[in-house]
Amino acid sequence: MSTTYWQKRMEIPGRVSFSEGNGDMPRIEIKTPHSTGEIYLNGATVTHFQRNGEPPILFLSQFSRWAAGQPIRGGVPICFPWFGAQEGAPQHGFARTTSWDLKEITQTADGGVSVRLGLPESADASLYPPFTADYVVTFGKQLTLELLIKNTSADQDFSFENCLHTYFTVGDINAISLTGLKGASFLDKVDNLSRKVETSQNLKINQETDRIYVDTASTVEIHDSKLQRRIVVEKEGSQSTVVWNPWVAKAQQMPDFGNEEYPNMVCVESGNVSDNRLVLPAGKTAMLKVVIDSLPL
Ligand code: BG6
């Protein structure tokens, strides 16, 4: 689909414009009275969200690959219909590397902009019971992400994992703490998936961290004393929270991530993975909603 074709259909002067972004991939740029944002059709990846007068809320690697069919390193990749590794298939599912269809752009009462995308039919999707996946992203004072999976089959359950893999900008990983996870069980991916219980009220990150917290619907806050703000990650329809920072050695192994970038990011991801995998009955819709806000410390 060419940019010109979209422009004619959906551009909103001063609010929504279309361009060829990095790697010449189709990109939608959003400007609202409160914020700026960007979304690529590749993986329906939101790559930018910044409130006026504040540093960006989302982290985007300077070393990301920018090629159709490759995941973007940063922003909000979508993990679906599986999370993590799956034998013979790409990590985190095909949704994050598929080019999504742009369905609709609307304005909200306070000048925000909602973009609705849909996952197209594909050979990968046809291996599952029939379903639709829609993604509605609203840029405004907050960033609101809604992933809607509908099982359209007549009589089959649809079993899947989903996760909005949000990368956040932080001033210094050594100067942040996370609240909202105390008491939750987690699978520790850097310790052979051992099952543990979070004991910290203010979780600090000072080494490679890769944890799947299960059975938790709590809001997580990232307290950032360097940027003097807290990022609030509120969620609905999500029982799992993943916390990830690759730290030094893993960062060095990742070709699409800078060796020096790990201190400036943390992933706090919301979804339903591992123990919380969903089984969606025929005709039902699963909504995964994340609202991202920031407040001064
Ligand atoms: C996290 C996983 O969600 O994503 C980690 O828990 C993984 O294990 C990370 O390393 C990044 O994955 P990828 O496929 O983008 O390199």
Could you characterize what this model shows?
The protein is mostly beta strands. It has one domain (3-172, 234-296): Beta-galactosidase, Chain A, domain 5, CATH 2.70.98. 5% of the residues lie in helices and 42% in strands. The strands form four sheets. Strands 5, 11, 12, 14, 15, 16, 19 and 20 form an eight-stranded antiparallel sheet that branches. The longest helix is centred in the first third of the chain and has 8 residues, at 3-10. It is globular and about 50 Å long. The model has no long low-confidence stretch (mean pLDDT 97). Bound molecules: 6-O-phosphono-beta-D-glucopyranose (BG6). 6-O-phosphono-beta-D-glucopyranose is lined by residues 71, 91-92, 165, 189, 210, 242, 244, 269.
The molecules bound to the chains, other than polymers, are: 6-O-phosphono-beta-D-glucopyranose
Please state the average pLDDT score.
Answer: 97
Low-confidence residue ranges: none
Compute the separation of the termini in Å. 44 Å
Main sheet: strands, sense, barrel: 8 strands, antiparallel
CATH architecture heading: Distorted Sandwich
**Helix content bin:** under 10%
- Our estimate of the beta-strand percent is 35-45%
Task: Please give the number of β-strands.
Answer: 22
Radius of gyration: 18 Å
What name does CATH use for the topology?
Beta-galactosidase, Chain A, domain 5
